[in-house]
Write a structure and sequence with these properties.
Length: 340
């Protein structure tokens, strides 16, 4: 399965193909110097499989975790390219989750003012969300994603065989972003979440459809001027819950799952709750929800007069409403009984 994503400077293909890692050279131009970036949590065999398809591969393995999305990480990648005489006609391939993807893409955007970048997402979150849309970046001075660039990949390849090694909790957390896409854009996809037999083939088809939906959004709004706001569904409160919890208590996708709960109609909530439970996503906050409130206004998306919030009254559609801080707090506290 494949589709093409258009952007201001051209287009690229997204391939969803089981077993494709071992012949990735059929899809990507790897007959050159290739910097393969991965992390210590990603099984090394994936980067090695990609390396076998490259003319001159160099693998860099950063430490797993958000800390690697740093200027030090960027420096390591650029230093490695410089030492290995990378030119503007060489390329970078990310083999990993969103951490590796964001870091490697930023390095590709900066090295010699931009060399080709390919993304091989190995988590559900990175397949569904971060692999398309062209956002790259690192954290700096304790602020997440504060340095970065919009830089489009030359290609994206998701091989669902990588799910075999991904912890179940990571799969569920990534699927929260796919549920988000279904709720806002695709009622039949949501029905598949409700009824499809849960197995690897289902995951693969949910991921493929969700990334297609995300691609359609970013095609229409490359630089986050309008429609892309919809991708923030579940994130305003989700980010606050994520910030309020101890480090590592909840995964980002789990917080998105919780964040969607107050922002839908009662009818939608009644269908969302069983889906969250079906995919082992939380529907209760593991601490007093008030603890998250101070973090609500830290959202980068706050502007004059409030923050744009996405509401889903009917599955497959959305409304955007600007809420003041008080209105936002009321929306969340009114939904307190839903967190069960
Ligand atoms: N650029 C964007 O548009 C965008 C969108 C959403 C999120 N993000 C970023 O993505 C990052 C989160 O991404 P993530 O959830 O993929 O986390 P991650 O990259 O940290 O991966 C999660 C963990 O899974 C491990 N892992 C990856 N693939 C594996 C596999 N197949 N088998 C076993 N283990 C595997 C990793 O080593 C890591 O420990 C955050 O930094 C976030 O800011 C970016």
């Amino acid at each position: 399965m494949q589709f093409s994503v258009r952007h201001a400077l051209g287009s690229y293909n997204v391939y969803c193909e089981r077993g494709a890692l071992s012949h990735i050279g059929d899809h990507f131009a790897l007959d050159r110097r290739v910097l393969i970036v991965t992390d210590t949590g990603v099984p090394a065999e994936y980067a090695k499989a990609v390396a076998k398809c490259c003319q001159t591969p160099t693998i860099v393995t950063v430490a797993q975790g958000e800390e690697s999305k740093s200027l030090a990480g960027l420096e390591l990648l650029c230093e490695t390219m410089l030492k290995n005489d990378f030119t503007r006609s060489d390329c970078v391939v990310a083999v990993g989750g969103g951490v590796v993807g964001d870091l490697a893409c930023f390095a590709a955007s900066a090295y010699m003012r931009g060399i080709d970048f390919y993304n091989v997402p190995t988590t559900v979150l990175s397949a569904v969300d971060s692999s398309v849309g062209g956002k790259s970046g690192v954290n700096f001075n304790g602020v997440k994603n504060i340095l970065g660039a919009f830089y489009q990949p030359k290609g994206v390849l998701f091989d669902a065989d990588v799910l075999k090694t991904l912890p179940a909790r990571q799969i569920s957390a990534g699927l929260a972003e796919a549920i988000k896409m279904a709720l806002t854009f695709d009622a039949p996809l949501f029905e598949t979440f409700e009824r499809g037999e849960v197995n690897d083939a289902l995951y693969e088809s949910l991921i493929f459809r969700a990334v297609q939906l995300k691609a359609a959004v970013v095609e229409k709004d490359e630089r986050e001027g309008g429609l892309r706001k919809t991708l923030n569904f579940g994130h305003t409160f989700g980010h606050a819950v994520e910030a309020a919890g101890e480090l590592g208590l909840l995964h980002h996708g789990e917080c998105v799952a919780l964040g969607m709960i107050p922002f839908c109609s009662e009818a939608v909530y009644k269908r969302l709750l069983p889906v969250l439970k079906r995919f082992d996503l939380p529907s209760a906050i593991p601490f007093d929800m008030e603890r998250a409130f101070p973090y609500l206004t830290h959202d980068k998306k706050w502007g004059k007069g409030g923050v744009d919030c996405i509401f889903v009254r009917e599955i497959g559609s959305f409304e955007i409403k600007k809420l003041t801080k008080d209105e936002l707090l009321k929306t969340i506290t009114d939904a307190k009984n839903r967190f069960i």
